[in-house]
Design a protein that fits this description.
- By secondary structure, the protein is mainly α.
- It has two domains: 2-46; 53-114, no CATH class.
- 60% of the residues lie in helices and 8% in strands.
- A two-stranded antiparallel sheet has the order 1-2.
- A hairpin with a 2-residue loop joins strand 1 and strand 2.
- Helix 3 (91-99) packs antiparallel against helix 4 (105-114).
- The longest helix is centred in the middle third of the chain and has 27 residues, at 55-81.
- It is elongated, with a radius of gyration of 28 Å.
């Protein structure tokens, strides 16, 4: 190990296999190329427009949207129709929680924790 001084900080350089420098250069070039490919793939998928998607890529998005909307509608309808005595807490509170619809978490939380169990 050698010390190189750059301004106020010290940088330690590790030179275990100095004879392999050409291989290191090739490896760095390969890694940079692969890294740029990965970055390009990530950027490409983030910036796709709806019209750029194939039917196979659109299907899960549409299905997810449908399930989220169905859960939200079911929860809000249940909150509206159910008497306040059968709901744990305020109807307004559970309506707000149901509207927090990230992957259906709000409506699922209402169905699991917001309704009182009534014997039938």
């Amino acid at each position: 190990m050698t010390e190189a001084h750059h301004g106020r900080s010290r940088v330690l350089e590790c030179r275990i296999f100095p004879e392999e420098r050409p291989i290191n250069k090739q490896l760095r070039l390969l890694l940079r190329t692969e890294e740029s490919k990965v970055r390009e793939m990530i950027i490409m998928t983030r910036n796709k427009r709806w019209s750029d998607l194939t039917a196979r890529e659109k299907t899960p998005l549409l299905l997810r949207g449908f399930v989220q909307f169905a859960l939200l509608a079911a929860a809000l309808l249940d909150i509206y129709r159910r008497p306040a005595a059968e709901i744990k807490g305020s109807k307004w509170l559970w309506s707000a929680v149901a509207l927090v619809n990230f992957m259906g978490i709000g409506p699922i939380a209402y169905f699991l924790f917001g309704r009182k169990r009534v014997g039938r």
